[in-house]
Design goal:
Helix 5 (about 110-135) runs antiparallel to helix 18 (about 385-415). The protein has one domain (about 105-460). It is about 65% helix and about 0% strand. The chain is mainly α. Strands 1-2 form a two-stranded antiparallel sheet.
C-alpha cells in the first residue's frame, strides 16, 4: 500500500483520445457504406474492452460525454433488438460505478443542494417514464409493452449511475474528471451542428429524418432532433448555453476556443431562445465581474464590436432568418392572430382550466387535433411547465417548481450567488420546449459546478491505493 501522484491532465487526455478514435470509427463506418449494425459492434467491443481492463473511470467519462446524444444506430439495425446503443453505454456505466464504489469506498453525506439536485433527477426520470404512458393513453402515439419496460430499465439505470456520479464528485479528482466529460459533450454537440450538412452527406443523420434534402431550410429540421435525445433546437440551444455559463462562471482560466465553438454551434441551431439566453449569460458575466466600471464598459464595447463583426460575416443569419419569419408571418407556428406560441399557451391553459379534474390531475383526452385547427401544423404546448400541468395536473407542476425553488434558494444562500446563472438558461428554455430534453443535465451541472472553481491547468491529486 502507498501513496502515488497521478496527473489529471494525462487521464483526461487519454479519455479524449479514446473517445475521438471511437467517434472517428463510427463516422468511418458510415463513410465506407457499411451497415449500421457495425456501429453496435464498435460500441460493444469498446466497452467490453474497457471493462475487461478495469477502466471504470473512462467508462463513466464516456457515459457523461455521450449521454446527451441519440443512439448512433437506429433500433432496427441494432444487434440487441429493441435496445439501442445508448443502453449499452448506460449498462456498462452501471457496472463500472458499482465496482468503482467498492474500490474507493467513498462516504459522503449529500448537502441540501445536492439532495434537491438528486430529487430532481428522480422526478425527471419518473416524468419521462409516465409521459410515455400518458401519450399512449391519449392515443397520440402507441408503444408496445416491451418499449415501456426497456424505457423503465434505462431510466432506472441512469438514475443509479447519476447517483454514483454525484457521490464520486465529492472527490476533487472525479469532479474535475466529470467536468471535462461534460465539456466534451458540448464539443460533440457544437461540432455536429456546425457540420450538420457535411455529416448528412456522408450518411450521419442528426435524427430520424433520413429522407430530407440538404439546405438551409433543413438545418432546422435536423436541429429538431440534433444529437440531443428527446429535444428540439431549443433544447440544443439551452444545453449549449448552460454549458457556456458553466465555463464563464466557474472556470478560472477560460478555454476561449471551446467557448467560440459552442457559440458557433448555438448559432447553427437557429434557436431564438438559445440566442436570447446567450445574450443574458454574456451580459451577466460582464456586469457581475469584480472589475471596475471602466473595465466593464470596455468589455461591453469589445463584445459589441465582436458581435457586429460576426453579424457582418453572417454568423447570425440563421437565427435572424427564423426571427424575421415571426415578423413577416411566415413562421409555420403562427396562428391567424400572429401570436404563435403565446396563443398555444393560452389555448392549453384555457383547456386545463375548463375542468377541475384536468386542473388537479391532468387530462384524460387528446386535444392535439383541436390544437391543429388553431395552428398551421399539429403542435404541442411548447412550454414544459404547461405541458407538465396538462399531462399530470397542478400537483406534479408544484413538485417540479418546489424543487427548482429549493435549488435556487440554496444557491442564493451560498457564497457564490452568481452561480444562479448556471441553471437560469435551462429554466428559460423550458418555457419554449414541451419535453424536458436536457433535464438530466440541470442537476448534474449543479453538482459539478456549484460551490467550486476549477482550473484548466495541469492538476494533481493524491490517491490512496
Amino acid at each position: 500500500m502507498g501513496v502515488f501522484i497521478k496527473n489529471v491532465f494525462d487521464d483526461i487526455q487519454y479519455a479524449y483520445i479514446v473517445l475521438t478514435i471511437f467517434l472517428l470509427v463510427i463516422f468511418g463506418v458510415y463513410l465506407v457504406g457499411m451497415p449500421q449494425i457495425s456501429v453496435n459492434f464498435v460500441f460493444l467491443f469498446l466497452f467490453i474492452a474497457l471493462f475487461c481492463f478495469k477502466k471504470y473511470d473512462l467508462i463513466l467519462f464516456l457515459f457523461i460525454a455521450l449521454f446527451p446524444t441519440n443512439g448512433f444506430a437506429d433500433t432496427k439495425y441494432n444487434i440487441l433488438g429493441i435496445v439501442n446503443s445508448k443502453y449499452i453505454v448506460s449498462l456498462f456505466a452501471l457496472f463500472s460505478a458499482i465496482l468503482k464504489e467498492g474500490q474507493i469506498k467513498s462516504n459522503y453525506n449529500f448537502d441540501k443542494l445536492t439532495k434537491y439536485a438528486f430529487y430532481l433527477i428522480v422526478f425527471i426520470a419518473v416524468y419521462l417514464f409516465l409521459q410515455n404512458f400518458k401519450v399512449d393513453q391519449l392515443g397520440i402515439q402507441q408503444f408496445a409493452v416491451t418499449t415501456h419496460l426497456t424505457i423503465f430499465i434505462k431510466l432506472a439505470i441512469d438514475v443509479i449511475v447519476f447517483y454514483y456520479i454525484i457521490k464520486f464528485s465529492n472527490i476533487p479528482y472525479y469532479k474535475l474528471y466529470f467536468q471535462k466529460a461534460f465539456f466534451y459533450s458540448l464539443l460533440i454537440i457544437s461540432l455536429s451542428m456546425i457540420f450538420v450538412d457535411t455529416l448528412y452527406e456522408i450518411g450521419i443523420y442528426m435524427g430520424d429524418e433520413d429522407s430530407i434534402k440538404v439546405g438551409d431550410a433543413n438545418k432546422r429540421v435536423l436541429g429538431v432532433w440534433g444529437l440531443i435525445c428527446g429535444g428540439d433546437e431549443n433544447s440544443l440551444g439551452g444545453y449549449l448555453v448552460m454549458g457556456l455559463s458553466c465555463i464563464l462562471f466557474s472556470a478560472k482560466k477560460k478555454p476561449w476556443l471551446l467557448v467560440t465553438i459552442i457559440i458557433l454551434g448555438l448559432m447553427h441551431t437557429g434557436s431564438r431562445t438559445g440566442f436570447f439566453n446567450l445574450v443574458i449569460v454574456v451580459l451577466a458575466f460582464m456586469l457581475c465581474s469584480q472589475d471596475s466600471i471602466l473595465i466593464k464598459l470596455r468589455n461591453i464595447l469589445l463584445v459589441s464590436l465582436l458581435a457586429f463583426i460576426l453579424f457582418k460575416v453572417g454568423v447570425f443569419d440563421f437565427v435572424i432568418e427564423r426571427t424575421m419569419k415571426l415578423v413577416t408571418g411566415e413562421d409555420e407556428g403562427l396562428d391567424a392572430n400572429g401570436l404563435g406560441r403565446l396563443s398555444g399557451w393560452f389555448f392549453y391553459l384555457n383547456y386545463i382550466m375548463s375542468d377541475m379534474r384536468y386542473f388537479f390531475f391532468g387530462v384524460t383526452e387528446n386535444i392535439y387535433d383541436a390544437v391543429s385547427t388553431e395552428f398551421f401544423r399539429n403542435r404541442v404546448a411548447h412550454n414544459f411547465y404547461i405541458q407538465l400541468w396538462y399531462y399530470f395536473g397542478v400537483f406534479a407542476l408544484c413538485i417540479f417548481l418546489y424543487l427548482l425553488t429549493k435549488i435556487c434558494v440554496c444557491i442564493l444562500k451560498s457564497k457564490n450567488k452568481i452561480q444562479f446563472f448556471l441553471i437560469l438558461p435551462a429554466c428559460i428554455t423550458l418555457f419554449t420546449v414541451s419535453d424536458i430534453g436536457v433535464g438530466f443535465y440541470i442537476p448534474i451541472v449543479l453538482v459539478l459546478f456549484t460551490n467550486n472553481e476549477f482550473n484548466y491547468k495541469v492538476q494533481k491529486y493524491v490517491k490512496k491505493e
